[in-house]
Write a structure and sequence with these properties.
Phosphoribosyl-aminoimidazole Synthetase, Chain A, domain 2; homodimer; seven-stranded mixed β-sheet; disordered C terminus; 13 strands; about 325 residues; alpha+beta; thiamine biosynthesis (chains A, B); 2 domains; 11 helices; four-stranded mixed β-sheet; 60s Ribosomal Protein L30, Chain: A
Chain lengths: ~325, ~325
Amino acid sequence: MVCGEFELIARYFDRAAGSRRDVEKGIGDDCALLNVPEKQTLAISTDTLVEGIHFLRDIHPADLGYKALAANLSDLAAMGADPAWLTLALTLPQINEDWLRDFSDSLFELMDYFGVQLIGGDTTRGPLSMTLGIHGLIPTGRALKRSGARPGDWIYVTGTLGDSAAGLALLQHHQRLNDPVSNEALIKRHLRPMPRILQGQALRGLASAAIDISDGLLADLGHILKASDCGASLNLDALPISDTLQAHFSREQQISWALHGGEDYELCFTVPEVNRGALDVALSHSGVPYTCIGQMRAAAEGVTLLRDGQLVSSGKKGFDHFAGK
Amino acid sequence: MVCGEFELIARYFDRAAGSRRDVEKGIGDDCALLNVPEKQTLAISTDTLVEGIHFLRDIHPADLGYKALAANLSDLAAMGADPAWLTLALTLPQINEDWLRDFSDSLFELMDYFGVQLIGGDTTRGPLSMTLGIHGLIPTGRALKRSGARPGDWIYVTGTLGDSAAGLALLQHHQRLNDPVSNEALIKRHLRPMPRILQGQALRGLASAAIDISDGLLADLGHILKASDCGASLNLDALPISDTLQAHFSREQQISWALHGGEDYELCFTVPEVNRGALDVALSHSGVPYTCIGQMRAAAEGVTLLRDGQLVSSGKKGFDHFAGK
């Protein structure tokens, strides 16, 4: 892009709001300069979103700005980190000021909510895509990893599962539920997921392992099982399903979306028996429900899914992850 | 991409080589976990490269892997930082194993040379592009910024200028010099620039401001002038021009490329009179020449370019940056 275009874009992203004391130099030099406080560990995650693959072509830029950051923040939530700094590399096919305003306003609103400061990035011309680099801080030694679960630990999830997949299906098929409130609720769960930052922080020292549910419960729990070398038994009757999903879709559809639907951005975590009481204290004030859905097993026991007390199996991808272990 | 393709790609980038003690967790969890040593400040820079815009469509993947990282490292050099960790977000139109091997081998060779560890990233399907996030460390308070120059400080550059632009011109126009050694030398300067990491570190505490020359000397020095609120006088007769460039191109072409040609990835820096002796000690062992090309002036004096003792002006973009101040 020519120089003037860059300066135009920079206007939308160079905002004073949310300036943090640990940022010695933000945008405007060859590098940003950051001071990590003593006894804090830095957590970094990178996400790329490409039009037509990670988001629908007709998505509103305000929804895109929100969701790109929310998905990136969700990785910090899964580690129990406190969000701090963002880098944004944005590739745009052309300059559209309305688009830039809506996208950046929404992005900055969520950044401000979590105290995140934009510290740098890059703007280039090309097919619409973006790469976000989120940086968070965790008291040293207290990060939630995927690898700490042990047989006997209880498996939990925050919130409800499957709503985002339902919302996506409504958008993709241009369908509407006959109840507009339910319709909007499910679409909002897809477009505006709330990263479980506070819940992740509350789980430090209590959960033995954690992950965020971006690819579907079974696929993501599979990562915990692999990293922790465990099996698991899940009680499908315990899966937390929203009233909205229950009211409008078959039980089979609910369970399928809950197990395999992606982009819920809830946390899946494991808790040793000894910590269950403390867990109730820690999460009861977080404003989000949490549900025990199963228990970790020895790796040799593999994975079992129980429904109405009966063993069921699934041929879907997430289950294949399990079965392939 | 389907799961198997991701695992294929991961094989090329998940290498044990170069594991650093400050990396608590690299690739394989929701976030990487890094421990910044005490009294060190973190420096972060992000670069996006899009095919057809930042690199030629027929570039060899080994050259691309090298240059993408070299350009990113050059931003650390400009701050005087020690390279530490890299994130790589790679978007590929399809899986080509030969391409992946050549690209990643070359990338890892340069990472190993500078002790950099790959700590995460993302791989997606789409038009070829990549975003690199480089992280370096600097003793707190010793970073080289653009904003520290004062009138009277001397202006220096490392190495020689204009070679990269000459190499690009040869590649773009499919021309060859009649001397194959010169031909290869200029193309190599374009495809394989050496980031001036050691020189940047040697300048800590000596240079009052620094920047790397990615957009051309005049454009990049312009950033120092703006950030430091200064003017400058440059002696064009002092510009360091390689013997190769002198042997094959007109004096006008040499000066034009030296002033306006991009991607030299040399450092431009300013040094107060009192530090000039120490500078000679610090840089004399660095293996790269350095040249005084002018002096900082008060902002009110603007920018003057002198050639054969005469005032000259330039209508090119870099100079417009100056003139517009």
